[in-house]
Amino acid sequence: LPLLRTKSADADASRKERRFSAIAIALLVPALAATLYTTLSKWNWNEADAAIAREQQMDDLLGQLKAKLAENPNDVNGWLLLGRSYGTMGKHALAVDAFQTAFDKSRGENVEAMIGLGEALAMTDEASLTGRAGRLFDAALDKAPNHPKALWYGSIAALQAGDLRKGRDRLQLLLA
Q1: pTM to 2 decimal places
Q2: Any residues with CB less than 8 A from the CB of 15 and at least 6 apart, and which?
Q3: Which pLDDT score is estimated for 5?
């Protein structure tokens, strides 16, 4: 803007030169910055598009799974798959709903539903490890004493509850 201001009336030629300089700077600096950014940047320009495509594909697949579960709501494995998918995507509240449905449909007998529900509850609220999630891991370990996820989360729940011996024993069993 200072290049466009005139200071005297006899500076008409100087005024044209300053306008030309101002226009050249306004056009060349952004063009130079864009060129340097695209040539020197390590940004993967295709990755953003690929991530959007993967997310859209995942949403489509989840939509198909939900439609199949609407047709057959008693499919425990379908609910488990839906819960695992939500958990992988970081949508832990939705994972809790899916695993809770699988847990209810299996009448509390499916170990994977117990562990998935406990994990999703722990991811939404870490304090639940000393509550419902911890009880779910204990029940899962009663049915499957060597299940790695149940041992891991069960040991964390025991340690948070202050039962150091149980936590240590579960971690040692997990290591074995």
Answers
A1: 0.69
A2: 6
A3: 61
Q: Which of 91, 137, 96 is nearest to 117 (CA)?
A: 96
Whether the predicted pLDDT of 70 surpasses 70: yes
Distance of alpha carbon 149 from alpha carbon 167, whole angstroms: 13
- On average, the pLDDT of the chain sits at 87
Confidence of residue 12 (pLDDT cuts 50, 70, 90): low
> Which amino acid does the sequence have at 75?
D
Q: Are 123 and 131 in contact (CB under 8 A)?
A: no
The SS3 of residue 59 is: helix
Measuring CA to CA, which residue among 124, 126, 117, 105 is closest to residue 150?
A: 117
Q: Where are the beta strands (DSSP E) in the chain?
A: none
Torsion region of 10: left, alpha or beta (phi above 0 gives left; psi -120 to 50 gives alpha): alpha
User: Cβ contacts of residue 159 below 8 Å, gap of 6+?
Assistant: 167
